[in-house]
Amino acid sequence: MRLSSGSPTLSLFPLRAVKLLAAFVLVMAVSACSMFGHKAQTFETMPVDALYNKAHSFLEFGNYAGASRGFQRLIARFPSGPYNEQAQLELAYAQYKDNQPDDALSTINRFIKTYPANKHVDYAYYLRGLIDFDRTAGFIERVTKRSGGLTRRDQGYNLQSFDDFSELSRRFPDSAYTADARQRMIYLRNLLAQYEINVAEFYLQHKAYIASADRAQYVIEHYQQAPQAGDALAILTRSYLGLDRKDLATQTHEVLALNYPQHPYLTDLARPVRSPSFTRRWCKASVWFRRRRHSRAGAPRRSTPAGSYGVASLAAKGASGHARPRS
User: CB atoms < 10 A from the CB of 321, how many?
Assistant: First the structure.
């Protein structure tokens, strides 16, 4: 049966559909405005505790850029107080994790200068050492986890990192981060020694015996406890032979035999001066350190209002392997 043009069913159906469609469009428009304007509005209007918690939640979920923006707005809006101090500390950590080492270093240096008595300043020194600790590795080393090229790069960042860890150990010998810092200092010492050995070998291969002897002597004087000291003695022996100083070469050879009786140079003068067994151990240690670069670096979170204890966020364990307390 056909409906006539005056049928009430035909006239009411389009009207009802139009009303529903209009209501749906209005709801979606309001939701979109709320969704796109929410972040900027909350960063500018939220109270300090809510703003800190919001930025810290970004940090915990790996949104380091969002965390940096949140902490920066907190610092700008609330230029003093405990939240400001904690925000600066966590901002440096967020920038470090976001591969912004220059910004992170600037933030952490400002924190140390402004708040030298802060209860977490030991962590600030530790983080400053970590920032430079990871700056020598290039893109290939970070992707492949190989560290062979680290001893062929400029060692300025490694020297600075060593000094930062050394200052932490000197100022805060009982800090939860000191044990890990000392282990990293040993690794950096060996890295710096290996760099000098590489340069000395280059000079030796090009028969620049005075230069190779100087580099080897530097390793012996400054890195006596490094495993590369044996290689330095071998290079020094070869350098003296090249300079026709057989008396000095004999003396150095005797010192090498006394302190490193298993060194390959003692059994075959034509072999490379570097100990292959040590090279394998050192490469394994390099990979291990680079893989754990962020495992203990999390910033200690501020105290709760009740002063309770808790763990530092972001897998932030202290160097001893225990969670860093908040107090």
Answer: 10
Contacts of 81 (CB under 8 A, 6+ apart): 48
Residue 250 CA to residue 230 CA, distance in Å, equals 15
Residues in the chain: 327
pLDDT in tens, 193-241: 999 999 999 999 999 999 999 999 999 999 989 999 999 999 999 999 9
Model confidence, pTM = 0.69
Cβ atoms within 10 Å, residue 75: 17
CB count within 10 Å of CB 208 equals: 16
Q: How far apart are CA 250 and CA 269, in angstroms?
A: 13
Distance between CA 83 and CA 71 in Å, rounded? 10
Handedness of CA 29, 34, 37, 41 (dihedral sign): positive
pLDDT at 253 over 60: yes
Report helix, strand or coil for 93: helix
Query: What is the DSSP-derived secondary structure letter of residue 266?
Result: G
Chain mean pLDDT for the chain:
77
243 residue type, one letter: L
Please choose, from the candidates 126, 133, 100, the residue with its C-alpha nearest in 3D space to the C-alpha of residue 111: 126
Q: Which domains does the chain have, with CATH numbers?
A: 44-119 (1.25.40.10), 124-297 (1.25.40.10)
Residue 158's contacts (CB-CB under 8 Å, 6 or more residues apart) are 132, 133, 136, 188, 191, 192
**In the chain, how long is the greatest CA-to-CA distance?**
123
Lookup: tokens for 238: 């070869």
Whole-angstrom distance between the N-terminal and C-terminal Cα of the chain? 82
**DSSP-derived 3-state class of residue 119:** coil
- The phi, psi pair for 37, rounded to 5°, reads -105, 0
Residue 99 is given by DSSP the state T
Listed residue (125, 142, 230, 106) closest to 184, CA to CA: 125
The tens digit of pLDDT for each residue in 122-165 reads 999 999 999 999 887 644 444 444 444 555 556 889 999 999 99
